[in-house]
Amino acid sequence: MKTILMLGLIGLTSIAFAQDAKQLKEIALKACDTQMEQVPAEMRDRAVKTCKCTVNKTDYEALLTAQKAGNMEKIQADATAVAMECAKEM
Among 18, 41, 49, 86, which one is least packed by beta carbons within 10 Å? Predict the structure, then answer.
């Protein structure tokens, strides 16, 4: 769980430089696949589902607004809330 949460946070903060919400989501979905190469095979299926859940539940408009305002605390809080919600669903 902790590993998946950290991957999500890293993914969201690393994609915050895209131009719009649609681009952010596309980049995040690609990042799920790339990040999963580093996850042990026995955990990969669940990690992919959790990552994609996180991508689909993230409000990228709010992420862009917080990023433009330099509000990393909001970005991290939102990412943590979404990751926890997705973890509960799994």
Answer: 41
Is the pLDDT at 38 greater than 60? The verdict is: yes
- Let me know: does 16 contact 24? Beta carbons within 8 Å: yes
Q: How far is CA 42 from CA 7, 36, 39, 45, in A?
A: 17, 11, 8, 7
Please measure the distance between the N-terminal and C-terminal CA atoms of the chain and give it in whole angstroms: 11
- Domains in the chain: how many in total? 1
Domain span including residue 51: 2-89
- Residue 65 is predicted with a pLDDT of 92
pTM confidence score: 0.71
